[in-house]
Amino acid sequence: MLYLAQVHRNEFLEQRQLRLLARQEAENMWVIIPEEAFILLGKGNILNEKLLVLVELSPTGDIERIEEATNWVLHLVQTYLLTGISPEYLRQETERAEQWRQNLTLQNQDLARRSLELEARREQIQALEESLKREKSSNSDEEV
What we know:
The protein is of the alpha+beta class and 144 residues long. The chain is built from 2 helices and 6 strands. 48% of the residues lie in helices and 29% in strands.
């Protein structure tokens, strides 16, 4: 699993550790880790303190891969922030999409209602036609 982490110095053990900040849930969905969670890096690690990194952890919690997050952060800035995509914009778009969905649902219900009304009218017309045919045939039988 992929995490965003920050390098810290563990004073007690005199070595670097990673503080896990966020966890990737899906391709474009991350969850903030509210509690403090740390992973020791080992004495030989020379990452600078406060550096943001992306770290991939195995299911057992072992570090499989670690890389600086600079390019990842720049990609986020280019993808979302240069075009004006903000949390407020996303909220508004979500609301707009929900309104659109509700309008489509109402239109669909209206079309279904109209379709039922048309079917009922068609059946009424057919019943009237049958009635007229019966009347016409009974009138022509009486004339003969």
